[in-house]
Amino acid sequence: MQKTRDLFSWKPHWARRLGPAPFLPMSREEMQALHWDACDVVIISGDAYVDHPSFGAAIVGRLLEAQGFRVGIIAQPDWRSPEAFRALGRPRLCFGITAGNMDSMVNHYTSDRRIRRDDAYTPAGEHGQRPDRAVLVYSQRAREAYADVPIILGGIEASLRRVAHFDYWSEKVRRSVLVDAKADLLIYGNAERALVEVMHRLAAGEPIDSITDLRGTAYLRRGTPEGWVEIDSTTVDLPGPVEPHSDPYALNGSEGQRRGARTDLATPTPAADSAAHRDPPAVPLPFPRRAPVVDRGHTVLRLPSFEQVRDDPVLYAHASRVLHLEANPGNARALVQAHGDRDVFLNPPPVPLTTAEMDRIYELPYQRVPHPIYGESRIPAYEMIRYSVTIQRGCFGGCTFCSITEHEGRIIQSRSEDSILREVTTIRDSVPGFTGVISDLGGPTANMWRIACKSREIEAACRKPSCVYPGICSNLVTDHAPLIRLYRKARELPGIKRVLIASGVRYDLAIESPEYVRELVTHHVGGYLKIAPEAISEGPLSKMMKPGIDAYQRFKELFDRYSRAAGKEQYLIPYFIAAHPGTTDADMLELALWLKRNGFRADQVQAFLPGPMATATAMYHTGLNPLRKITRRGEQVVVPKGLRVRRLHKAFLRWHDPENWPLLREALRRMGRAELIGPRRDQLIPAHQPRGTTAQPGKAFTQRGQIRTQHCGLPEVTTDPSGTRQPRATQAQVRRGPRRQRAR
User: What are phi and psi for residue 727, nearest 5 degrees?
Assistant: First the structure.
């Protein structure tokens, strides 16, 4: 993997001598108190400003402050005019724009596109304090406020929209956010390394349009950079016969032709179809197809253009597959995608942070509380994480519905044990209201800390989307001993009464270490532990890249055994996704019967939410499976679309709710499974309808309770460039029926 400069090796900018601010200023008055005449960087965020390392704006701001820059924050500005964007004056270097820890569309709407009632990242949970597609709106207003100030996009919303992407809320393919926002630069993934270098280069007088060589960045340009070799992505991963387009590599082609797809993919006649599919006819290329390229660092893959993926689902699925194949920082190549007459050029993903860099980032001088401007107002997201500690970033699970890998990567970035313990003592000694209970030591998952490939060379060469699917890779070191030691040391610290684990446990990994399960169950579970089987049938599981239900059963056996040994009454809370691509009505019926046999009842239910860039979203949009080579004869994926089928799949998860019984009866009769209607235990629902409940199938669905969020998907945990967790809304929470009331 490429060697990089240490994050803290840059010579600090002159403002370092001013020292850290108590809070990053949000007003001119605060700037005057700090004796600032201007800000070097102004961060515009869709979240309230909480000076805590679980909030992206705080991490980015404190990191740039440590580099010697004066950083101000405009949090949740009034986007209806540019005046709020002038609150701190003209920034000397740039605006940094983020929608916040959470994608603004996921923040505003449920998976059924209904408006949510609250916003966890806003004081008092008030809804409506940020616009839809916040990155676009904020960029427009910032440009109106100061037209000549560079704009840099970051955060989860920008990161997952860096190329042409399917947008669930408008049901169409949208352009890269970089194009629509008219921004100068987009930083995706873990942003720290690129951001620090950009700021130092801007401070040295380098124009932003010349900063095009940083990993983890995207920018707009015309033409391929000099000295780079361009390869058509369809030569790397053949998408099969498609409609004829001009050859992007034809030596005599025009600039417009250069931006099309290969002519050797033209749809053949029926007689020649099979032969053409096996061996597409050769076309003149300026270099040999699949020829080895010595300088991989100066090779760029051309994806089908925005116009092509917008109009052709096959090319969309192909582009999605190539993007995910080029995700390992050790071997990924740059990508380019035409949008009209310009290209969105994506440099390879950022090199992961080292343990020493992670330690310094998380030990910057955070106040660990909201800015005083909010007074006594509660910020729900802060209340949830105020006593938690982030111990790692990234996830190698590769779940197709999840945005962690696309954003943070699959290489685990871990903090040191000493740094984590120091943060625990900081919480103990300085956070108001602390009672001795650490609410979480975790991250995207609870038990991937310090787990990695046995060889850096193998890791750098690997192109698998997951280290644990279809089974745990033989090169993955699954030793949980360091994590066990960390748990023990944390709970032995003076003043610490208990350390809970609230992050989702990757149970197929945990069963590799029964001692870890015993430690977890004996000391770190607060009565309930959440895990995410997501489904039980092979159809949806294979499209999710999740382990079979057998792994869940083995984990449950260990969980129950060690709970009994500890003399504790504890329960697993499994989460399931309704209406995920690959799920049939029969799959959901099988899951409903499984839930009933095992005594589980779902309290809150939501269907699959197709977040931008996720592999499962490509399945949802195209009906094809990007986990395999894409062809027009390729694997077709069953996609539950439409309000009625999505409601039915939710109803199967809430089989016990009388409001759902009319819809389920109708579905069971249609499926030829009417024998499951009746009063016996082996039947799913009764034939009668209780008085006072809905009797019409068309009105048989009600969404009860609040949306429950949980780790691992577009959704909690997706993260911004800082590694901050973000709530997800794609799961069903289930609890044991007999204890349902008590669980609430």
Answer: -65, 145
